[in-house]
Amino acid sequence: MADSVIKIHLADDHQVLIDGLLAVLKLDPRFQVVGFSLDGVGLLDRIKENEADILIMDINMPETDGIEVLRTFRKEGFPCRVIILSSYEDVKLIREVIKLGADGFLAKNCAGEEISDAIENVYAGKQYFSESIRQRILGSFSGTPINEDRKYASIAEGLESITDRELEILKLIGQEYSGQEISDQLGISKNTVETHRKNLIKKLKVKNSIGLVKMALKYNLIN
């Protein structure tokens, strides 16, 4: 992560939660809260003005909710990264916000350390989920608790273990790039591309690249 201060904008319809986040984030010199909003109206303009790097936002806000904010971000290609902080942990909602471009999802009862970890990871280009959120996502792959279904537990573990580089390659496979084209695009050898492809096949329990794409689409790894 860069040495520069990470600029953060907060959005929640409860002032008490805003105040709590401000108190936590002020303790870390890496972070600077540059603004906050109590609803989604005008949120994009405010973030453009203060040039926030990360938006920490509730889903349930008056007038313009978090879903609409994410849709606007996606439509306009806005570069600010988004961490959802919500008391709702419904898997369908979590998948929806991820699909719309959210980079992280935290339960509102998470600890201050977890908020700091989420900011650091998301700023570095990674996704971050609270442990409770991660378990809900993994458990949803089978529709039953993970420990009740070995096959789907294995797939869930494979999905969780996919690296950033493997995800890059998976996306390019989904766009029908050849091994050589992926090699040229990422500046790595064709043999390295093939090694990553084989690792993906093993992790996702499929037989070939077609199976990889099907699995990636099923679990929203690619659009």
UniProtKB/TrEMBL annotation:
Domain Response regulatory: 7-123
Domain HTH luxR-type: 155-220
Keywords assigned by UniProt, alphabetized: DNA-binding, Phosphoprotein
Pfam family membership, one: Response_reg
SUPFAM superfamilies: C-terminal effector domain of the bipartite response regulators, CheY-like
Residue positions, PTM 4-aspartylphosphate: D58
InterPro entries in the cross-refs: CheY-like_superfamily (IPR011006), NreC/VraR/RcsB-like_REC (IPR058245), Sig_transdc_resp-reg_C-effctor (IPR016032), Sig_transdc_resp-reg_receiver (IPR001789), Tscrpt_reg_LuxR_C (IPR000792), WalR-like (IPR039420)
Superkingdom to which the source organism belongs: Bacteria
UniProt cross-references to PANTHER family, sorted A to Z: TWO-COMPONENT RESPONSE REGULATOR
Protein name, UniProt field: Response regulator
Lineage, uppermost ranks: Bacteria, Pseudomonadati, Bacteroidota, Flavobacteriia, Flavobacteriales
